[in-house]
Amino acid sequence: MKKIITMVCVLAWFGLGGCAQDKPAVKLALVVPLTGDVAAMGQGMKRGMEIAVEEANAAKLFGDTPVEMVPFDDRADPKEAVSAANRIISDKRILGVIGHLNSGCSIPSSSIYAKRNLVMISPASTNPKLTLQGLKNVFRVCPTDDLQGYFAADYAAKVLKVSRIAVIHDKTAYGQGLAESFKKHAAEIKLTVVSYDGIDLGDKDFKALLTTIKTKSPQLIYFGGMYTEGGLLTKQAKELGLTVPHFSGEGIYSPEYIKIAGKASEGDYATMMGVALEKLPEAKAFVEKFKLKYPGVDMQSYDTYTYEATNLLLAAIFQAKQDPSQIVGKVAGMKYDGILGQTSFDANGDTLNKTICIYQVKDGKFKYLE
Amino acid sequence: MFIQQLINGLTLGSIYALFALGYTMVYGVLLMINFAHSEIFMLGAYCGLGMLCVLPMAASGPAMFAVFAAAMFGSGAVAMLVERVAYRPLRHAPRLSPLISAIGISIFLQNLIMLTVGAQSMPYPEKFPIRQFEFWGVTLSTLQIFIFFLAVILMLLLNLFLRKTKMGKAMQATAQNHLVSQLMGINVNTIIALTFFVGGGLGGAAGVLNGLYYGSIKYNMGFFPGIKAFTAAVLGGVGNIKGAMAGGFILGILEVFAAGYLSSEYKDVIAFVVLIVVLIIKPGGLFGEQVTEKI
Amino acid sequence: MKLPISKPYLMSGVLLLLLVWPFLWGGDNAYALYIACLIGIYTILCLGLNITIGYTGLLDLGFMAFYAIGAYTAAILSIHGVSFWLTLPVCVLVGGGVRYLLGLPVLKLRGDYLAIVTLAFGEIVRLVANNTVGLTNGPKGLPRVGEKISEIRLFGWSLNDTIHFYYLILAFVLLAVLVSHRLEHSRLGRAFVAIREDELAAELSGIHVARVKSVAFVISGMFGALAGAIYAHWIGFVSPEMFTFWESVFLVAMIVVGGMGNIGGVVLGVILLVGVPEILRSTLGAKFVDYRMLVFGVVMVAVIIFRPQGLIPSKRRSLELHTPEAE
Question: Which residue from B33, B104, B266 is facing C300, i.e. has the nearest CB?
Fold first, then answer.
């Protein structure tokens, strides 16, 4: 008993005391799912940030003080996200947070960062509610779901010329948000939404649901969610002879989607936020660097956004002369020219750069559509 | 739509039935819930995937055979190992001990796969061509036919094994009474290990079928199907092998109809409610196999 | 085991350490406090679960359901502006009530069936929370955007910092320990143990087995709901993903490793399984956290085989567990 108590005390001392003393650095936290279902995207975001940090250090942005990325794993789980947020605000030398991926994680965590007025820039959380909480420290470099859903409904009506659409979502803040804005605009432009269903994250069997949907003969299936479920949905739909294309947000814009769905993904559409990389000359340098640093690795949806968000945050910290109390104000006033075009924020912290582009799966790859 | 859902249900049911056999066989000989069986199912799917990836040859009968052989043998071996390490030392311990031990093994195996293979869903390659038939607005794929018939063949083989071979008969004797079987010259430990091997092998085959059917597998894929297969075993009367087969089909069809006609969001809830209701009202299962309570 | 100092002194020492704990870290290490609070919450949960598993011998694999019920009840009431001090008893009553209703049919079942049924119930609660969007906001969790879980007010000032919650949780942990301790040494507690050891013999000794089991079941459910209510107020966010089956198993693991039926053992189990991995996270790196469940699985099997009474066995239990059970 005594031994155990001593052991625990010693461990506690080591553990908690140990983390306080190390050399000076400009610390930035990255909180994304590094493990779990959508880890591929989180790992991609980490790569995007690594490139930005490497560039800043090569350019000696803060003189001899290096920039350091501190990665945290939220496993796309709100509970883990809150725990990570608490760890982040315990470290006084973290000057800003890049994250989270999922809106479901960003929303509860954002109020924890607000306690210390720590700036949080999300490269990927698109639920409109994130920035409507009245928190001054929250920003994002991606346009909201409202815009994507609206755009997708428009595209379905005008370009794809379909009129009967089945909508499915994964009930998360992201997926449902996307589906709701799609449904809302679809009603406005007189598209028929033949069905509107929620699925459970982690479920694998959608055949019963798809069989029901098939009887309503939709011409398009719109899905709000991530690639794991999205890939299975399109695969199983086609196995049931429901051979209409699937349309989704950037949550499925990942090579993993095509791997899971196989040939069934051919012809599916995905909207992506921002200017397409193919069209922007500034982005070329980033793509080259990425290929050089990570040969053979595919880019994921949010790599560029994370790169952009990190650069923007670093620029703000530079302008604020590393004074923690100034950083939020500097980010709010930022006009940043980067690989997504010009990014600046409105009063809520939403980006004013609201371009959306569209991709289609062709020959097992996402291809940009003009 | 009714026929389509019935086909979906039968396919799902064949997987549950194969899976449920492992629970029921182990319960028959040891009176314990082999909680780790859902991980055996998962390992089977991963073994099958491994074999699919290494096999250089294109789709062919022998390739398919190799995939299933690898999965069944791998799962069976692990199941046997688990019995040896985690259950045999507890054979005379209080009843709940092996269950807790099984849960420990379950956590261990899941995390082992998560850490060594990956935490993400892994796609099952479509190496074997799948054709679809359309009739009366119903789509039936060769894969569904394959799953159904493979499950039925494996179940018939098991039945044959239990009835005609010496080992099978010894297994049935052991299920009835350890002590008397031992007196009849049966090595009870060997028979129990064999039970785990056979049950595990069938679970592994179910895992591969599950992977082929849904096209993606994950380290925690065993949990929900595991509970459902256990429900199927309970439906048929735990320890009753034919009951488990019937229970699997009943549950598969029930689940698909619940999802199709009631609500796809509550299909798992429905399976769990069936489990609770059957255990409370008719713990002996639908087919009346008397589960004797041994105090 | 002989302790070098007498028990009251040890207890006061531990209490003193707990009281000054936040100041050992300069009073503002949010993470150290966060972990301490988490350990506190899990201690309340495990002490509750210990009443069914440890004392009465009923294996419950869905205990998180009651934590969830407490947390959701608290969140819903609190969003509508109900004070914490009113919410708390309501949560405890709701938790206990649901537990009672669940117990009516299922407590008749044999041990391993009971385990499976509680598991199913736990998953049902989680799935219902996930799907009754109108009440629980589905996977997005409570509170909805624009709503807020109201602050706890105590004698005119409000608790809003982790350090306030630390002392609040500490108070409830002490209460839980006290209740558990009194219960263990009461007539009822002895009845629990009698049922665990031999239901038939207990019945013949004049114990109303069905009623006593039900009491144990309900009390533990109340502990779970209490912990849930505090957690919801502390974190200010509740979502169904917090209450998965593996969380329930995690609780069972803590009790098994620490020592079933022993308060000190349970607390040690919580510290080992919740606290130590978090502490080691900063020394051994984040990679370690990935391996912790792997290690727990092995430890669980090893403990149940080699030391079924747990690291700190209860005095009664260590005498009893080794007798082989006749089939």
Answer: B104
Q: What residue of C is the nearest CA neighbor of A107?
A: C145
Q: What is the structure's pLDDT at C3?
A: 53
Q: How far apart are CA A3 and CA A10, in angstroms?
A: 11
**DSSP secondary structure letter of residue B6:** H
A204 contacts B221? CB cut-off 8 A: yes
* CA–CA gap between residue B234 and residue B276 (Å, rounded): 10
Q: Taking 70 as the threshold, does the pLDDT of residue C76 lie above it?
A: yes
Q: Pick A132's closest partner by Cβ from C145, C237, C282.
A: C145
C106/chain B closest Cα distance in angstroms: 7
**A187 in Cβ contact with B199 (< 8 Å):** no
For residue B295, give the nearest of C115, C200, C291 by CB distance: C200
Last residue of a domain, one of A239, A273, A307: A273
| CATH number where A220 lies | 3.40.50.2300
Nearest CB partner across the interface for A11, out of C3, C264, C280? C280
Residue A18 confidence (pLDDT):
44
Q: How many independent structural domains does chain A possess?
A: 2
The residue-averaged pLDDT of A129-144 equals: 86
Chain C interface disruption, residue of A127, A196, A200, A229, most C CBs within 10 A: A200
Share the mean pLDDT of chain A: 84
Name the band, by pLDDT with cuts 50, 70 and 90, for residue A20.
very low
Omega before residue C164 within 30° of 0, cis:
no
Domain shared by A160 and A234, yes or no: yes
Instruction: List all chains that touch chain A, counting a touch as 3 or more CB pairs closer than 8 Å.
Output: B, C
SS (H, E, C) chain A: CHHHHHHHHHHHHHHHHHCCCCCCCEEEEEEECCCCCCHHHHHHHHHHHHHHHHHHHHCCCCCCCCEEEEEEECCCCHHHHHHHHHHHHHCCCEEEEEECCCHHHHHHHHHHHHHCCCEEEECCCCCHHHHHHCCCCEEECCCCHHHHHHHHHHHHHHCCCCCEEEEEECCCHHHHHHHHHHHHHHHHCCCEEEEEEECCCCCCCCHHHHHHHHCCCCCEEEEECCHHHHHHHHHHHHHCCCCCCEEECHHHCCHHHHHHHHHHHCCCEEEEECCCHHHCHHHHHHHHHHHHHCCCCCCCCCHHHHHHHHHHHHHHHHHCCCCHHHHHHHHHCCEEEEECEEEEECCCCCECCCCEEEEEEECCEEEEEC
Q: In whole angstroms, give the CA distance from residue B174 to residue B187.
A: 9
B2-123+130-281 carries CATH number 1.10.3470: yes
Q: Is residue A88 part of a domain?
A: yes
Give the C window 37-76 contacts with A, CB below 8 Å: none
pLDDT at C224: 95
pLDDT score of B292: 46
Residues A256 and A294 in one domain: no
The residue extents of the domains of chain C are 36-242
Question: Residue C197 above 50 pLDDT?
Answer: yes
Q: Show which of residues 284-313 on chain C sit within 8 Å of chain B, judged by CB atoms.
A: 290-291, 293-294, 296-301, 304-305, 308
Give contacts of A 88-147 with C, CB under 8 A: 89-91, 104, 107-108, 111, 129, 132-133
Q: What is the pLDDT of residues B52-90, one digit of tens each?
A: 888 766 667 788 888 899 999 999 999 999 999 999 999
Predicted ipTM?
0.87
A200-250 pLDDT, tens digit each:
888 888 888 888 888 888 999 999 988 888 989 998 898 888 889 999 988
Distance between CA atoms of C64 and C53, rounded to whole angstroms? 14
Residues of chain C contacting B219 with CB distance shorter than 8 Å: none
pLDDT confidence of residue C192? 92
Q: Which residue has the tokens 């008893």?
A: C89
